[in-house]
Specification:
2 helices; UBL3_Ubl_met; alpha+beta
């Protein structure tokens, strides 16, 4: 191979997004893509079979990974997602996100309290 030949490798992360309805779709993203970038891309390329779940704006699309909402500026690279494997995330419509590590959550964890109710 001569020194003029270069091999360029693009690392991409395969995301399988799951809607509340259970419908799924796979997308490829760069490690530099943020949660906001992903929401906009999905909104702009909304799958035809997701038509019933179409939202009015990409700004209300939220990603959930390992049980936690991803804030808009978090990149896939920061999550250290593996290349060449499929990572599953949930995609939901939600206006606002809970504050990360909110005091109320920490207090509930310490005391063992929960916000669930029992209906008899």
């Amino acid at each position: 191979m001569s020194s003029n030949n270069r091999i360029i490798v693009f690392f991409q992360i395969n995301l399988r997004l799951i809607l509340v309805s259970g419908k799924t779709k796979e997308f490829l993203f760069s490690p530099n893509d943020s949660a906001s970038d992903i929401a906009k891309h999905v909104y702009d390329n909304w799958p035809m079979d997701w038509e019933e779940e179409q939202v009015s704006s990409p700004n209300i699309l939220r990603l959930i990974y390992q049980g936690r909402f991803l804030h808009g500026n978090v990149t896939l690279g920061a999550l250290k997602l593996p290349f060449g494997k499929t990572t599953v995330m949930h995609l939901v419509a939600r206006e606002t996100l809970p504050e990360p590590n909110s005091q109320g959550q920490r207090n509930r964890e310490k005391t063992g309290e929960s916000n669930c109710c029992v209906i008899l």
